[in-house]
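Aggregate trends can hide what the representation actually does to any particular protein. The sequence in question and its C-alpha cells are set out directly beneath this paragraph.
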Amino acid sequence: MHERHDHHDRSNQGEGVRDSKGDVFEPERATLFPTAEPGGRGRDRPRRDNRVSILTRLLRRKFGALPPAILTRMATADASEVDVWLERVLFAATLDDVFAPLQ
C-alpha cells in the first residue's frame, strides 16, 4: 500500500507553510529582495551583485545595449538604489526613467 506524504504541514495555520525539510515559509514576511541580517554588511554585497546582474539582464532585454556610464553607475550603486531601479524597469519607457534621481 502506498502511503501519501503531504510535504506541507498545515497544522500551524497563520504561521506559514512548513516544507519537507521543516523550514517555514511565511508569505506575509516574504520579500523579493531580502536584505542582509543586522551587522552582516559584508553578506549584503553578493545579494547586491546578484540584483545588479538581474537588472542588467532586464535592461538589455528591454532597451538593448547599455551605455558604459549606466554600467558603471550600476556597478557602484548601493543595494537600495538597485532595488528602486529594479522596480522602475517594469514601467519605464526609457533608461532615463529607470535612472531618474531618487527622491
